[in-house]
Design a protein that fits this description.
The structure is a homotetramer. Chain A is α/β, with parallel strands linked by helices and about 350 residues long. Chain A is about 35% helix and about 20% strand. In chain A, strands 8-9-7-10-13-12-11 form a 7-stranded mixed β-sheet. A 6-stranded parallel β-sheet of chain A has the order 2-1-3-4-6-5, with helices on both faces. Chains A, B, C, D: Keywords: Amino-acid biosynthesis, Arginine biosynthesis, Cytoplasm, NADP, Oxidoreductase.
Chain lengths: ~350, ~350, ~350, ~350
């Protein structure tokens, strides 16, 4: 059994990790920490865990740190800036670290410090961190000590673009015009479990809005993913605009691409099907189908539909995921499975909840 | 024109008052105060007011108080305990006060102090305050200086029981068994516009729960209303249980009564229709119809359905209102209309919003 | 492996059965039928099943019947009146039948015909059917050929009252006054997957209403459950009123009881804890806690809170379940586990989905 | 008083027309028709109208037609294809016609027949019809006999692009690259009041999806609006993708534009403010603000935010409206006001409903 700890278990990614890891046949959650709820049972905060977990939140003091160092893996379900302060002590003790916040997502120190407005606590470790998108970095993950679990939006964007960029890499002509518009929509749980008037039920229900118009932290992460994939002279400009949907879970990214004449000659449905044929969690829907977010609710599945309209030179990629699962905790468990040499789908096979 | 002020305009009853009074043909809102948002335009906080209101929030300092004293009426859309501290200075200046919080609802000082856990700031004024349910106290309201605007639940409970208690008053036999179960449900806006994890969208949506099982502050207010109506040896025991419904606005009270043999001989539909025949805002639905909360959304209407089942000795009264209108701001405006001798429906005729 | 069939797989209980049985380690779904969708893959109707199930809907013709007869168990997730027409052919072939509709719930033929307005197709078989509430009828279920899976409301009502009635059975004095008010609330999925204006999103969202005021089919089922438990001179009168909550899943029953003096001497929390100590799916919450429906979302758990207020002679039992799981498909699987001698919790251990 | 009739009053645009016209000081609704509900009072179908309207639905037979011919204006809140069959008889009688469906939106007969898959019943009248977007066609509307009330999406798209195209018309250089991406989102009421599994609450709540990927009927209407505005060599290619949001009312269009170097030199906020300075219903929000759909709920206001990011050459226009008001019934009333020479805002001044 893998001994796991979850630092910061009172947020939505925290409880989702508890839910997933409690059902994982090869993992034991041995420590759960929370600054604000130290001493409280997890199932007092989340009665849904009654009968599922007996864990009690610990404070993240020195004693706890020493306990953490005896775990095999520590998940940080904390705000940005926490994991990087603990990472050195843990990795030196041989503990693998999976940070669900942003401390190890951006490989560029400058980008991190620009977008997160704080110095990085361990720039050297950052260089060794692996961006935890298994469909992109499966090999590196196998030996990773520190994993930066991707942001929710970038997961949909990068996986929605990967087959296209890889197809482009193999062509002398441009297939897709340079400008990529990613119009993305997220359920409210993506904003976290926090007290905020703006997140109050009566403020968000029966309502829809955009945010982050002039720059969202997930944009550099999307650009980094594209850059990693790109092996071509044909670069791209990404327009990323997130919106808030009155739903609990779910993320929907509408990716608008313009086909060149050469691009119109490609059968993009086939490209996607080939690209993801061996991926357990990526479902390329049949031609003409539409994904909806509920079809992946509470599941680690990410669904993609490819709509090609040569008459209008349009290629539209629609991507859905559960922002808390494939967009956060599920992906973290998938990463853990890879890091520990387990079957990648272990503990992640549950069917989506519909209706 | 009546010069009105709203103290505490940043909550849901506050913005609802602004919405209603802005459309009132005989009222001018001359002052709007907020401790937290002083200096900010109301339409910055609530962009829905753009083009509707140019008001800027003032702080409630000495200068403001002096301005308040020049108004004709001051609405307090504040937490409990604020209005009672200002009431004396205002009423001495001849300003009428309508408190949408609880400071002037309970006529018993002991009850107030027990349920609200604070001493009352002006017990003498409390004696002169009128409970602002026009259908109960229309005559007293005409000359009231201070009005305690009813709680949302008590409005549905008292108006749902009034015809029954009045019918009982005229009978020598018991018509209804002593125990009255009021199972009530409220939309989330009833909890106010506040930052609270428990009110977060992802906590309240797709969810239903009870609260206040062992005692809700609206119970003594319901009991007070019944006591005022009661003129009979046949007293009642009220069980009041509130629940939280994942909807923005709306309140639904299911009142469960048991008919005696004598009570089965009464045509309760007729009793209700007669009782409310002249009330502009109370709609007794035809036999067999069901009210739903959306049918009064954004309106001052309160709808009642009377379901009598002699076979099972059941009398069920279903009452709906918009908790922010008839349950708060609309009722306050209705009270103001009565207090100033205006047509009671002035500014309150808008149709409900459906869908 | 148990060979199972689902007749009528396109409704919400149907897809929930597919979801649960697909993850059940001892079951293989070998047949899925639908009149309206014959020939269509289940995952075309429900894309959430893509990668989970390859099943194709069959029509329920003669050929299918012969295939059904080779199964070990057939679940009917059909409208009322379908299962009773097939039950004889199946049970004669030794196939166990679990009907999620009402054909085998009411043991009284007269009650069935009164409430469902149709003659019963197999009155003799009805006598042998077991009411599928394992917490009530576990022993009988072990040998049952036909199981009438309980209605959703009755499950909450009967399990919310069972410890009380059993306690009463052992006392010479009345503990609880005769009148029991069950004010129940259900999510919209309880109305089924059907095309209906009344169930349209824009009709049900941000709305709350009661229905079935003058008689709901689940009332005789609740009364039957109470009658089965009752072994005392102290009978009860049940008032049952259902409401529709704008949420997908979830059921909440507020049971209002009045304590006699003797009843006030009982520690009801303890009574419930003792009564359900060995039940895997029934969670009696600690004193003072409140259940909410999301705490059991997508789980077979039923949660109960006991609130006793001697000062007001009130005993309030709050019961939550997922109407599609413990209220339907989960309970059916639990019944199947009992009927086939499996561990009762097999395939039903998944944690609730929160948020 | 203007004598008005509403043909097809049982849909959402129908009830919204009843709501708005009932409060209009210069209009009397003299006839209401419905095929399916003939003989029924409107307030039986929509109890929210109890006390607001006494109207009874008539069938649309010959007798009714003759009554319609005595009205001043007839609103068609019917499916596509109904108004064009009645238009000739009405206009010959001097009755003005406002069709809320699509019969008179597209001026090109070929476009109409291609997108709506039916021959047009009165091609000659079509040539005289005016596209009822007052901000575009105010002058023509003053003398119009037949008005095609715009689709909801085109209203947001055309008004969101109008200032840009008009600015472009006056420039020798391209300001905006040719490709315009309109990623639009609508509340569920936009799909109409119909019985459909896909619109069932449990199918649409907590869910998000795209539709019409390969061609939506509102696209040619958007293109027609752009073409009307365009007076420049610089044409545009529009990508229009609609989505369904789990909310009742509200429409949000995110318009993604790419600025040329010349376009970066323009202050687009100022362009929009100037362009709409005299429009009563169009609110250009201050720099940096975000619109949300609830800020226009139940109101005829359309709100626009202009976000210009020269660093990334992005111009993002965010447009919100209530799809049933400015997107349908409110715009129809606004058109009527213009057609009858009334103050354009008459009956349309109510504040949005927030929360």
């Amino acid at each position: 059994m893998i001994s796991a700890a979850i630092v910061g278990g009172t947020g939505y990614t925290g409880i989702e990790l508890i839910r997933l890891l409690s059902a994982h046949p090869e993992v034991s959650i041995d420590l759960l920490t929370s600054r604000s709820e130290a001493g409280t049972r997890a199932d007092e905060i989340f009665p849904s865990l009654r009968g599922i977990s007996d864990l009690v939140f610990s404070d993240l003091g020195n004693e706890t740190l020493s306990t953490l160092q005896q775990c095999d893996v520590v998940f940080f379900a904390t705000p940005h800036g926490v994991a990087m302060k603990q990472a050195e002590a843990l990795t030196q003790a041989g503990v693998k670290v999976i940070d669900l916040a942003a401390d190890f997502r951006l490989q560029s120190l400058a980008d991190f410090e620009h977008w997160y407005q704080q110095p990085h606590a361990c720039p050297d470790l950052l260089k060794t961190a692996v961006y935890g998108l298994p469909e992109l970095n499966r090999d590196k993950l196998a030996n990773a000590l520190i994993v930066g679990n991707p942001g929710c939006y970038p997961t949909t964007a990068i996986l929605g673009l990967k087959p296209i960029i890889e197809a482009q890499n193999q062509q002398a002509n441009r297939l897709i015009e340079a400008r990529i518009v990613i119009d993305a929509k997220s359920g409210v749980s993506g904003a976290g479990r926090q007290a905020s008037i703006a997140l109050n039920y009566a403020e968000t229900t029966d309502n829809f809005k955009a945010y982050g118009v002039t720059g969202h932290r997930h944009l550099p992460e999307i650009e980094q993913g594209i850059a990693q994939l790109l092996n071509s002279q044909f670069t791209h400009r990404v327009r990323f605009l997130p919106h808030l949907v009155p739903m609990i879970r779910g993320m929907f990214s509408s990716i608008h691409l313009e086909l060149t004449d050469a691009g119109q000659g490609v059968d993009w449905q086939q490209v996607f099907e080939n690209s993801y044929a061996s991926e357990a969690f990526i479902d390329v829907m049949p031609r003409g189908m539409y994904p909806d977010t509920r079809s992946v609710r509470a599941s680690n599945r990410l669904r993609i539909a490819v709509h090609q309209d040569n008459e209008r030179a349009e290629l539209t990629i629609l991507v859905v995921q559960d922002n808390l699962v494939k967009g956060a905790a599920g992906q973290a468990v998938q990463n853990m499975n890879v890091m520990f040499g387990l079957n990648e789908t272990l503990g992640l096979n549950a069917a989506p909840i519909v209706p």
